[in-house]
């Protein structure tokens, strides 16, 4: 008889708990609907997060929170909420479309493409994506001004193109050219069989990077960089590769990768970790921290880069960066930029201005100050560089 009473009490308590939980869900759903319809987005976010903390969680609530985050410009947080909706129902058309837009606003082309691939054909057509899979084209032209009587000005040009090979696969390609006259008193040129006072350092380069979206949050990265160098009668063919993985979270993006290969006469390995932090969930404020260990023919160097970017005015962003460490043969931007000039850089800092000219064109002006070491003389000197670039979004 005692056991029957216990079972009856347990059943009664369970029914009351279920009823209470059901009432909590109903109240939460009703309140969220009122806030959503009223467009009270800040209160919608506060209420929704508190409800989830109180174990009241369902896809409709997540969608409304995500939409409120998107409207208020926190695209990172919005993506997290839409992902929760899609994990319950991957066919939710509206959540998928909004996730596409949020990734686009964050310049995450592969994340946007991943979501676009899961939309129907008519919707993808309405997004006006390039029929050839083109994403963007880039142009850069730079001038390097060394404060050294034995170094002439350096010139750098780059043209790049990004395109979508599939909804999960993105390919970036660049062609680059660099030249600089090097003056040095009386060095022997074996080809000319005489002593000369100057030579030109010329480099022609090709770079290709592939990114594959395992999921919206996880990407696998691979790149290859070929460099054809001529200097003092010598010709060198350098081949460099990179393998890495990148994870996109609510406030941060994390990446780990390794560069490897042979650069002129040196065997190179470079291990990198990078953290991008978006405290507001958008590009109005962000930081990038990158730590690298460069092993150059058995010699290790530690290099650290820190950047801070923010939206200063309407259509205008500023980004400040500083790099510490011996940057002799240092590789940056997933292996795109290779700092293998004649003289190694010991310190670097710079400022970049981005200006959104229109819906397609983004202009950028970059200034860099470098402290460099002359490899032929025991002197240091300063170098100032200016680069003008444009990105055209298709």
Describe this structure in words.
With 394 residues, the chain is of the alpha+beta class. The protein has two domains: 2-126, Alpha Horseshoe (Serine Threonine Protein Phosphatase 5, Tetratricopeptide repeat); 134-200 and 274-393, Porin, CATH 2.40.160. The protein has seven helices and 16 strands. It has a 14-stranded antiparallel β-barrel. Strands 12-13 form a two-stranded antiparallel sheet. α4 (75-88) runs antiparallel to α5 (93-105). It is elongated, with a radius of gyration of 27 Å.
Sketch the major β-sheet: 14 strands, antiparallel, barrel
| Unreliable residue stretches | none
The helix/strand class is alpha+beta
According to DSSP, the number of beta strands is 16
Q: What count of helical segments does DSSP give?
A: 7
Tell me the strand order in the biggest sheet: 1-2-3-4-5-6-7-8-9-10-11-14-15-16
CATH architecture of the largest domain, please? Beta Barrel
* CATH topology description of the largest domain: Porin
Whole-number tally of structural domains: 2
CATH class of the largest domain: Mainly Beta
Average pLDDT figure: 92
How far apart are the first and last residues' alpha carbons, in Å?
Answer: 77 Å
Overall body shape: elongated
Could you state the order of secondary-structure elements as H and E? HHHHHHHEEEEEEEEEEEEEEEE
Strand content: over 45%
What's the helical proportion of residues?
A: 25-40%
Radius of gyration, in angstroms, nearest whole number: 27 Å
Keywords: Signal, TPR repeat
Signal peptide: 1-20
InterPro entries: TPR-like_helical_dom_sf, TPR_rpt
TPR repeats: 59-92
């Amino acid at each position: 008889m005692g056991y029957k009473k216990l079972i009856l009490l347990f059943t009664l308590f369970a029914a009351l708990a279920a009823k209470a939980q059901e009432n909590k869900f109903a109240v939460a759903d009703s309140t969220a609907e009122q806030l959503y319809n009223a467009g009270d987005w800040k209160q919608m976010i506060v209420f929704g997060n508190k409800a989830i903390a109180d174990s009241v969680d369902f896809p409709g609530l997540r969608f409304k929170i995500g939409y409120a985050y998107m409207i208020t410009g926190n695209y990172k947080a919005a993506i997290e909420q839409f992902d929760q909706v899609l994990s319950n129902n991957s066919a939710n058309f509206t959540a998928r479309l909004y996730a596409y837009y949020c990734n686009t606003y964050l310049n995450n082309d592969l994340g946007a493409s991943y979501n676009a691939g899961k939309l129907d054909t008519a919707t993808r057509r309405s997004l006006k994506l390039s029929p050839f899979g083109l994403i963007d084209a880039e142009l850069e032209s730079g001038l390097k001004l060394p404060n050294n009587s034995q170094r002439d000005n350096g010139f750098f040009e780059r043209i790049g193109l990004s395109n979508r090979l599939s909804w999960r696969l993105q390919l970036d390609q660049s062609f680059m050219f660099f030249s600089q006259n090097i003056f040095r008193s009386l060095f022997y040129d074996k080809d000319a069989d005489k002593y000369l006072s100057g030579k030109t350092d010329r480099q022609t380069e090709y770079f290709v990077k592939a990114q594959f979206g395992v999921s919206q949050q996880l990407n696998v990265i691979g790149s290859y960089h070929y460099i054809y160098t001529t200097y003092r009668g010598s010709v060198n063919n350098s081949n460099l590769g990179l393998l890495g993985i990148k994870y996109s979270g609510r406030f941060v993006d994390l990446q780990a990768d390794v560069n490897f290969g042979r650069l002129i006469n040196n065997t190179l390995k470079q291990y990198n970790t990078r953290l991008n932090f978006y405290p507001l969930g958008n590009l109005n404020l962000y930081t990038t921290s990158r730590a690298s260990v460069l092993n150059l023919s058995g010699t290790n160097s530690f290099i650290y880069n820190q950047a801070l970017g923010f939206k200063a005015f309407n259509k205008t962003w500023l980004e400040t960066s500083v790099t510490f460490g011996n940057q002799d043969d240092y590789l940056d931007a997933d292996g795109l930029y290779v700092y293998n000039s004649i003289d190694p850089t010991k310190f670097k800092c710079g400022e970049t201005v981005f200006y959104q000219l229109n819906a397609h064109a983004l202009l950028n002006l970059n200034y860099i100050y470098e402290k460099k070491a002359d490899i032929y003389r025991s002197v240091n000197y300063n170098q100032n560089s200016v680069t003008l670039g444009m990105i055209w979004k298709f």
